[in-house]
Amino acid sequence: MPSQNMFLSKSDLAYAELRDQILTGSLPAGSRLAQYDLAASLNMSITPLREAIRRLSSEGLVTVETHRDVRVSTMTADEARQLFEVRLSLDPTAAALAATRRTDDDITALRAAVDQLLPVTRQWGEGALTAHRVFHQTLYRASHNDVLIKMLDDLWDKSDRYRRLGLDLPPGDEPRTRDLKEHHRLVDLVVDGRSDQAAQLMHDHIANSLTATAISALEVREGHP
């Protein structure tokens, strides 16, 4: 559980912990939340936990049927595609803005982040996913558009379950190694101020992402034509 923070309520802490467990897959899609057990593990009463559940429900991460029947929302091809479509539009915008607005500090941060990247494959697992997110967050910040940054951070969170599903699929390591090279190329384009090329590369990068892989798998699972 995250360390206690005097500025956070128990409801905030429960929300942050449950949200993290859902997004990382510790609480799998479709699983029932044992609310009293969870409250005990978080050292709190049931009331702040239920407040946290209401927040998670508003984000679509849990489904509430009754106070006693709360489940982690299932993953669907439709939701994955919607998240994918929005990222396909917004990520290139962030890359283009970063190429025109990046500061010397942004360049330093981008180079440090890209140096920490690993191929996002099952071999490297969570460490690679974490480094991947840090890189994209660093690029988003270089856009210096707070509204866009917040939107993309939220999309990234909601895409995490699908990203992990894609990681578990067997497409081979070559596409993920290509992704790693694309990140280095993105940094070069942003540093050089080549906004159009940065946007195009980011578009292609998202089009071949783990979420895109997950969409195809979910469509097969759901029997889409």
From TrEMBL:
<dbReference type="Pfam" id="PF07729">
    <property type="entry name" value="FCD"/>
</dbReference>
<dbReference type="InterPro" id="IPR011711">
    <property type="entry name" value="GntR_C"/>
</dbReference>
<feature type="domain" description="HTH gntR-type">
    <location>
        <begin position="8"/>
        <end position="75"/>
    </location>
</feature>
<keyword id="KW-0805">Transcription regulation</keyword>
<keyword id="KW-0804">Transcription</keyword>
<dbReference type="Pfam" id="PF00392">
    <property type="entry name" value="GntR"/>
</dbReference>
<dbReference type="InterPro" id="IPR036390">
    <property type="entry name" value="WH_DNA-bd_sf"/>
</dbReference>
<dbReference type="InterPro" id="IPR008920">
    <property type="entry name" value="TF_FadR/GntR_C"/>
</dbReference>
<dbReference type="InterPro" id="IPR036388">
    <property type="entry name" value="WH-like_DNA-bd_sf"/>
</dbReference>
<protein>
    <submittedName>
        <fullName>GntR family transcriptional regulator</fullName>
    </submittedName>
</protein>
<keyword id="KW-0238">DNA-binding</keyword>
<dbReference type="InterPro" id="IPR000524">
    <property type="entry name" value="Tscrpt_reg_HTH_GntR"/>
</dbReference>
